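Extended Data, record DUF962 family protein
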Amino acid sequence: MDLQPTNTALPVVIDRPQLTMPIKNYQDFYRFYLTEHHDLKCRRLHFLGSSLGLLALTTAVLKKQKRYVGYGLFAGYACAWVGHFVFEKNKPASFKQPLYSFISDWRMYYHIVTGQISLFDHAKDRFPH
């Protein structure tokens, strides 16, 4: 999986692909996943939830207390689900394909951190291949 940035801009309006679940090819799934995260508020909530999850995991390791893992999972999923149900108006992709969705969440997180996907302006999105 190539995680290098590209210069191909995402269109402002993303066509939602008509795909049959389950999607067998991960690249096709990730393209679908990005269309399910077009709303910027939803993206920001995903990023917040994943960041809180990382913080909780770090805390669990440092304090040697497993309960923080649960807090991290709760924070991550709560933020993501609010983003989907309230702002994106769709069901989380994790309901459809949990493993691909989990991988894609962290891939999208990486693309946000590296500036390939914006939390504030669709014009700054660069389609990650």
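Summary. Confidence is low (pLDDT under 50) at residues 1-14.
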